[in-house]
Amino acid sequence: xxxxxxxxxxxxxxxxxxxxxxxxxxxxxxxxxxxxxxxxxxxxxxxxxxxxxxxxxxxxxxxxxxxxxxxxxxxxxxxxxxxxxxxxxxxxxxxxxxxxxxxxxxxxxxxxxxxxxxxxxxxxxxxxxxxxxxxxxxxxxxxxxxxxxxxxxxxxxxxxxxxxxxxxxxxxxxxxxxxxxxxxxxxxxxxxxxxxxxxxxxxxxxxxxxxxxxxxxxxxxxxxxxxxxxxxxxxxxxxxxxxxxxxxxxxxxxxxxxxxxxxxxxxxxxxxxxxxxxxxxxxxxxxxxxxxxxxxxxxxxxxxxxxxxxxxxxxxx
Amino acid sequence: xxxxxxxxxxxxxxxxxxxxxxxxxxxxxxxxxxxxxxxxxxxxxxxxxxxxxxxxxxxxxxxxxxxxxxxxxxxxxxxxxxxxxxxxxxxxxxxxxxxxxxxxxxxxxxxxxxxxxxxxxxxxxxxxxxxxxxxxxxxxxxxxxxxxxxxxxxxxxxxxxxxxxxxxxxxxxxxxxxxxxxxxxxxxxxxxxxxxxxxxxxxxxxxxxxxxxxxxxxxxxxxxxxxxxxxxxxxxxxxxxxxxxxxxxxxxxxxxxxxxxxxxxxxxxxxxxxxxxxxxxxxxxxxxxxxxxxxxxxxxxxxxxxxxxxxxxxxxxxxxxxxxxxxxxxxxxxxxxxx
Lengths: 317, 339
Description:
The complex is a heterodimer of chains A (317) and B (339). Chain A is mainly alpha-helical and 317 residues long. Chain A is built from 14 helices and no strands.
């Protein structure tokens, strides 16, 4: 066990190193850097730009820049953003919880809506209604979140102004107000993800329901509720969890659209803004944070899957 | 319907519809047609046939796990297929089945102890300590040590899984047990041991067995009566010894001829009685004999235009065969062989 934990941590460090290297290379390859942003259009003389580049160390060779960044990073020093002059870690630390909260609420909402639909569609897969759900899921899956988000913003601000909050309030400042702010974005995200959750639940459950042991259970006269919920769903849950975790990871890094529509200061927003400004020091740290979230989730799911499903445990041993 | 019968099937037909999408139904697949069958209490009925001949479907219909498309099903003289019947008739009448795929038929999420306990729980509720003893005994009966109670099905070999599946079925003391290829994954010693055990239990509790296999020899050895199925139809039925030693239908003859001869000197003389050159199966017309394309004695006149009905063979009691030319088999076979 202890070896596995150490192995996992080493693996994670390796992944982080690789990711940082790739992001750093891409940042260097992309034309343009911070110097233009800092000097401004009026002050953008050749001389000024050279001076700023020298100050930021952007004129040094790539490898040298990267190694010095790594050296600083190992000491926990990620520096300040030259653009805002705020500590990078502070900005990212403030943005991550917003995205985590959004992802969590969105996924919970999606599960509440999507999982029962998926179970129903699987149990009644051959009926007309089951087929109808399946066809509609595809439509639901293909509606982009900004459409749902924009519609929600429109309807709530027009017809239910009391539910709509345009100003973000941190969870640490006021829980109730924060929940009110997060309600609409979470709903928008839930609706777009519900289709995915329903689809995954349906497919995983149908696969389990076709297993011979389900037929055997019916032959022994177990109630169909028991067969579906304690037999088949238990077998399907690992698949559903795995997709859920991947979804969670992709939401944390990829909710920029929802965050933009609802003006939330999340990490997706931060990342896109930083890249737009060529503020790569900030972008790298944001990306590494999202990577860490992915790694933690992956580890968690691996361990959980082994705990839940003896089939996976047997495969390993 | 006669009360002496345990189960009676009358003109059972099963059509599978593979529905591809919301609007249209495509390609009905006939799994069973015109099945008339009587099962007497205490007997062993063998069903033999190749893959896809409908023998497993027939077993599932008797247990109520599949609903026939048409036909009537009587259990102890009572019609059970009414419009509101749910799928549980089998367990209500104490019918049980050992499924073809032993690995798949055990829930991989549960320990063997739970698997067996749940099955036992469907027939009786006993306190924990005596239940544990029962579970251990049931494993001992199939020659597994009690350590297996703590295992998951994924931690056992195929033969062990099949023994557990048999133990589970016997645990519920079923009145009728459908054994669908139930011993075919076992080694010869365990196989014969389990068959002997099944026969012993049958005598003791007056159980009824339906023994489904692709192996004519095993079926004939195990069962009192044998039913031979081909393409969802019964082509021959009768006493097992008659079916085995004096098969009438060309398909049964073919099955017998394909049993491996163990003496290597005699094995050279073995030849197949089946052919597959006339038609591919999809092209067999609806009203033709289902065996027409592989039959060594079929002709274009009668066999392709009329499905032969099961008719009694006068020489033997209770022997039926569905072939236009079964009387003239040798003559026709030699003729065609020469021509």
